Amino acid sequence: MADKEMGTLKIGDKIEIYKKYSSEKEIYPSKILDILEDNKFVISGPMKKHNLIFLHNDEIVTVVSLIENKGRYEFDAKVISRYLDKVYKVKLQKISEIRKIQLREYYRFNISIPVIKRFTVKKETLEESIIEEECRTKDISGGGLRLLTNYAHNIGDIIECEFKIEGRIIISKAKIIRVEPVDTFEYKYGMGIQFIDINERDRDAIVKFIFTKERELREKGLI
User: Fold this and answer.
1) Mean pLDDT for the stretch of residues 123-141
2) N or C: which end of the chain has fewer CB within 10 A?
3) Average pLDDT, the chain
4) What Cα–Cα distance (Å) separates residue 137 from each residue in 19, 46, 104?
């Protein structure tokens, strides 16, 4: 294509791919090297721990990309050819429509982030008071958090969470959907919370953060 774009992808974009029909669903970091006509494009060949991951002609892969301020998207592509000279390259052809990865599919990324949790309680006098607690995440996704806490919440409690992602302060209401005891030095409970009132730009910032951290770990061969 003359403008060297294919939908929302352009040369230089970092992507992830996985073999569509593999039971393991290993995800590999890659990069768009060139965009051709007829929905064809060239990517850097996938690697894992510095080893080449060979793809076969006509094999189907899924290409995953993060679109700024929109979310995470994917589409299927067929392997047209492979090149192995100084650089391992793979030519693909897009064969499906672009799909937005739904909230339930958001990957949970294990990371410890400080979180301020606020919870409003009513006293016997019907007066309200706010309990504020410093917590930490066990993992994070675009849909919610797994949070470590010392307060004995009930399933269904509504809380407010405040935390920082890449310098961006995110504040959202959330619903507690799971509570379980944990064995740590600092905290008594682990609970799953689901965002119920989050700005979509904040959600996109979380997804972008996860996408970037995943890619960094894969490029280092740590996952």
Assistant:
1) 86
2) N
3) 86
4) 31, 31, 19
